[in-house]
Specification:
about 90 residues, mainly alpha, 4 helices
C-alpha cells in the first residue's frame, strides 16, 4: 500500500508488475547470520574512493559512502544524501 501511494498505483497494478519477492529471516539466513551492515577490512579506502564525485557529474550517496558514528543505518544513508546534495548545490 505504501509503494502504491508513492507511485499513485493501485495494489492490483503493483501485483501484476511484481516479478519476484522474498521474505528473509535475518537471524536464520546462513549467509547473513543476523548481520545487517558492516565494514570489511580495508573498506575505508574503497568508501573514500566511492564518496568522491566522478568528473563532477556522477555522485554516490548512501550507507556505503557514509563516514561517521552511525554506519549501517537509515541515518547514515540520509546524512550521506544531504552531503552529496550540498556538493551538487555548490
Amino acid at each position: 500500500e505504501s509503494l502504491g501511494h508513492l507511485f499513485s498505483l493501485e495494489r492490483g497494478a503493483l501485483r501484476g508488475a511484481l516479478v519476484h519477492s522474498a521474505i528473509l529471516d535475518w537471524e536464520d539466513a546462513p549467509s547473513i547470520r543476523g548481520g545487517y551492515s558492516f565494514e570489511t577490512v580495508g573498506g575505508e579506502t574503497e568508501r573514500a574512493a566511492l564518496a568522491g564525485p566522478i568528473e563532477d557529474t556522477l555522485f554516490f550517496a548512501g550507507e556505503a559512502v557514509y563516514n561517521g558514528p552511525v554506519p549501517g543505518t537509515v541515518e547514515a544513508a540520509f546524512s550521506s544524501g544531504i552531503t552529496v546534495a550540498e556538493l551538487i548545490a555548490g
